Amino acid sequence: MKNEKNLRERIWRETSGHCIYCGHPVSLEEMEMDHIEPKSFGGGNNSANLVCSCHHCNAEKGGEPLEVHLLDWSEGKLRRYVNRVETLLDQGKISLDKADALLPLEKLASDEEDFQDEDFQKEYDTDIMSELEDVAGILIELLPKIYRICQRKRRKIMMN
Ligand SMILES: [Zn+2]
């Protein structure tokens, strides 16, 4: 019982009493310990998998895996959350394991990675090539002019 109270307090202190998900302050009494990886997905009761949450965010997340839940968030909320987690990690308040669990961003992309990569790569390469074509086209036009300007400058220098 005492251990559980200590754990609760430790989790609460990690975020200085703020909900990890929305950043709002919560008292130790109101705090809900959220399982980052839901128990139904094999998440444990250890401190690395527990995080300080307000009631609203914990209820909203429900039993969803975090990487699925994060997809529902606005870009602004997601950006603030990522900054919050990074700051806590930088300050040494949360472990790297916990920060990793809180930012499962690579899982978001992993399903479509192969398809996306290939497609994106093709598009990217095509863009780069068409830019190079444009530059080369301009250079073809300009090189004779640049060459003539250089000749003129050189002659002028020699005459002075
Ligand atoms: Zn919250």
Kindly list the characteristics that best describe this protein.
two-stranded antiparallel sheet; binds zinc ion; DNA Binding (I), subunit A; 2 domains; mainly alpha; 2 strands; 160 residues; elongated
Mean of residue pLDDT values: 84
Number of helices: 7
Taking the alpha carbons of the first and last residues, their distance comes to: 95 Å
Question: Beta fraction of the residues?
Answer: 5-15%
Runs with pLDDT <50, length 5+? none
CATH hierarchy, class of the largest domain: Mainly Alpha
CATH architecture classification of the largest domain: Orthogonal Bundle
Sheet with the most strands: spatial strand order: 1-2
Largest sheet: 2 strands, antiparallel
Helical content (DSSP H or I, runs of 4+): 55-70%
The rounded Rg comes to 28 Å
Shape summary:
elongated
Number of strand elements: 2
- One letter per element, helices H and strands E, the order comes to HEEHHHHHH
CATH topology of the largest domain: DNA Binding (I), subunit A
Task: Give a list of the ligands.
Answer: zinc ion
